[in-house]
Amino acid sequence: MHEKKIFFTVATSGMNGNEVTVLQVARSAGNAGNFSFPLDTSLSSVTVYITGSSLDFTLYSPTGVSQSDSMTDGSLGSIQTVGNLKKIKLKSNSQTGEWSININSTSSYTMRVIGQSSVNILSYFVEISQGGHSDSWGQIFTRPSTGQNAILFLSVTGDETFTVTEVLLVDASGSNVVNGSVKSVGGRDYLVSLNRIPEGLFGLQLEGLLNKSSSRFQRQSSNHRKGSRITVKPPTQNALTPGVPFSFNFTVSTYGTAGNHTIRARTSNGFSVSVPSSLNVESGRSAQGTATLTAPSITESGTDFTLTIEAEAPGSTDLNYATLRLTVSSASGRFSGLYSFSMCLSLFGLFLSLFM
């Protein structure tokens, strides 16, 4: 889906499924930074990774002890350098508390602090459905709208008891934040209301206290996300019979760049799908296209698959998509479509949220 994310490709030998991200930033050339981060009592095997050339740094512990990049084996940790990657493995006897690192560089760089902990976060954007005795919500399989308000579902893993103090969206540089309004929805789950989605790449940051130790903790999403000024909206329910072409309309709208938007579509299992190559969309308006989808006649009833429709702005300046989950039904000639604004939480949604 051409989703642009920042990934930190580093060797993490010894790490396993309990790896968590405490902090990550990406800065442009010549943009120095001083970054602080708390290390809590649930963390172990904390490592700082810095990528970039022509840089130097100084690490500071909670007690004020410092170690520069020239000290490969200091009181705070050991430093390994491979190419433009520096790996700082902190010593286990001095981890808990508020740390900071000062980085000076004449080129762009990234920095990531990771460790091992049972306390981690799972999050995805949702849409609220109001009705009945209580509100319900479901994951949206699309980029959120840049500059617009949004609601995010957040779940905290682990067996530690905790208190949430703040949830933020933080841009990739770590310089700008959007504060969220947090509402508990039971157990370790929360809904976070945000008054806008930032421009460019951003990540989620949770701050809180571990109740047993009163230790401040912080977790960030493991990758960065990006909003869009484009909206792609397919229908919510349609009919599909194996071997019979089915056509349906979808709409593309934008409050960004006007002009011909490139349209693409694909299915998860290779079923035939056709869409117009482009749609002319004016800013603040929408345009409609027609998609034709065919499941082979030998398709078994109950077969699940997904359909993704993408719209890309002129000059590749923006992109968004919508993903439907479909189930073929030969008995009734009907399928149930869970498009990007479905109100049904599913294991599919939980799985997909880890990669979006």
UniProtKB/TrEMBL annotation:
Keywords, ordered alphabetically: Membrane, Transmembrane, Transmembrane helix
Keyword match Ligase: no
Residue stretches making up the Hemicentin/VWA7 galactose-binding domain: 20-118
Stretches for region Disordered: 217-236
InterPro entries documented for this protein: GBD_Hemicentin/VWA7 (IPR056475), Ig_VWA7 (IPR057615), VWA7 (IPR052577)
TM helices/strands, residue ranges: 337-355
Domain (VWA7 Ig-like): residue spans on this chain: 232-329
Protein name from the UniProt record: Uncharacterized protein
Source species: Triplophysa tibetana
